[in-house]
Design a protein that fits this description.
Oligomer: single chain
Helix content: 40-55%
Largest sheet: 5 strands, antiparallel
Number of strands: 11
Shape: elongated
Structural class: alpha+beta
Radius of gyration: 30 Å
Length: 408
């Protein structure tokens, strides 16, 4: 079993938009690179690409038709050498390791049971059984177990299994002639007649007062490690990697927030409207299939949200993202950061592997209203990330100290 966190997705409707800037370190090197089309201050985001038939394709995105210059929209402040403090020191403590190790182990733990004096099986009882299933006299895979706890009436087993134990006594061995359902996932067993030999060992009940104990046997069975100490080492490695990623993400978020403080942005209304419209189109294309309207989809999947509320929410998201985007575009232009085609291709390749895309066209389509728009967007964000890298590297960052304490 792997160690993991399950995070809330929040607005599942949102693509990466611009939040890629706030993620962990990019997969490719942080050497200076940028979009050659941005030289001279003009942000020409329209990208022509080749379709599957080899013909040139042009972006249909409204935002790619807007002619703007980032340096004219942004008044850059002192973006290099900014002083930033973060309260977390991102160190893993013994207490954190112990707490996480125990919580994960208990989450995976099976209930504890204690014996009862009951002798005859009834509906709702929990029985401890040994069983073996055979088809044509031969035991089949997955049909045998010992010491299994089965709640009668839970419908855990195929029809007739649990019912066949009702009225039987502890210590008794029962032969159950049963048939697997036609739709059973295993083709070898679907619709087949089988015989289960079941021994009823005892009737038990859950022990709510049982104290959980972390043992070598338990971690070996559940976490594929030999000892509890090995398991704690696994937890420590996981938490350290998690802290490393969180440190990178938090640092980039803090730098972006500081950039928004020291820089002034005049966001073109036309660009904001176009980017919002593009996203609404993309969202509709991705989710509203089989004749479903956007209004119907939003109402059904987002607690009755209206199209007006949806667009307003996306506009707010885009305003925040575009503000950061323009600042970083302006920095990229001022620092003459240029895009390295080979490095960009490697980045795209790695992103495709992460998100299981087989074709570049499909990867780009997932990030724009069409493949050309998606490629233009990826190129822009790639360059902006490189600009952010430069700002982060120059920043004077203190960890383990809050912003308020740092100012005292």
């Amino acid at each position: 079993m792997e160690l993991y966190f399950i995070e809330g997705t929040g607005y599942a409707m949102r693509k990466k938009i611009f939040m890629v800037l706030l993620t962990a370190v990019m997969a490719v090197s942080a050497s200076a690179c940028g979009d050659a089309a941005q030289k001279g201050g003009k942000a020409d985001t329209q990208a022509d690409g080749e379709g599957t038939d080899g013909a040139k394709t042009e972006s249909t995105a409204e935002a790619d038709k807007i002619d703007y210059q980032a340096q004219e929209c942004v008044k850059l402040g002192d973006y290099l050498g900014m002083e930033i403090s973060l309260p977390n020191d991102y160190k893993v403590t013994k207490t954190q390791i112990e707490d996480y190790a125990n919580s994960m182990a208990q989450y995976s733990a099976q209930p504890s049971y204690k014996d009862t004096n009951k002798k005859e099986v009834e509906e709702g009882d929990i029985v401890n059984i040994d069983y073996e299933g055979k088809k044509d006299g031969t035991a089949f895979e997955g049909g045998t177990d010992t010491g299994y706890h089965l709640k009668i009436g839970s419908n855990t087993f195929i029809d007739g299994f649990e019912e066949g134990l009702i009225g039987k006594k502890v210590g008794q061995t029962v032969e159950l002639d049963l048939t697997f359902p036609e739709g059973y996932p295993s083709e070898d067993l679907a619709g087949q007649a089988v015989v289960f030999t079941v021994k009823i060992n005892k009737i038990v009940k859950e022990d709510a007062d049982a104290e959980f104990k972390l043992t070598d046997e338990y971690v070996k069975k559940n976490f594929n490690v030999a000892t509890v100490e090995d398991y704690r080492k696994q937890v420590k490695d996981y938490l350290e990697e998690l802290n490393k990623n969180n440190k990178t993400t938090d640092t980039r978020q803090a730098v972006v927030a500081k950039l928004q403080e020291v820089c002034e942005v005049n966001l073109p209304d036309e660009l904001l409207g176009a980017r919002t419209s593009d996203y609404v189109v993309q969202f509709t294309n991705n989710n509203c299939t089989d004749g479903t309207t956007l209004a119907d989809f939003l109402s059904k999947n987002y607690n009755g949200m209206t199209e007006e509320d949806f667009r307003a929410d996306i506009t707010n998201e885009m305003r925040t993202n575009l503000t950061t985007e323009l600042i970083l575009e302006a920095i990229a232009q001022k620092e003459e950061i240029e895009l390295d085609e080979e490095a960009f291709k490697e980045y795209v390749k790695q992103q495709m592997e992460v998100y299981a895309y087989e074709k570049e066209e499909d990867f780009y389509k997932a990030n724009g209203v069409d493949a050309a728009a998606g490629e233009a967007y990826e190129r822009k964000i790639y360059v902006c990330n490189k600009a952010l890298d430069k700002v982060v590297e120059s920043a004077k960052i203190t960890y383990g100290v809050s912003e308020e304490d740092a100012q005292e």
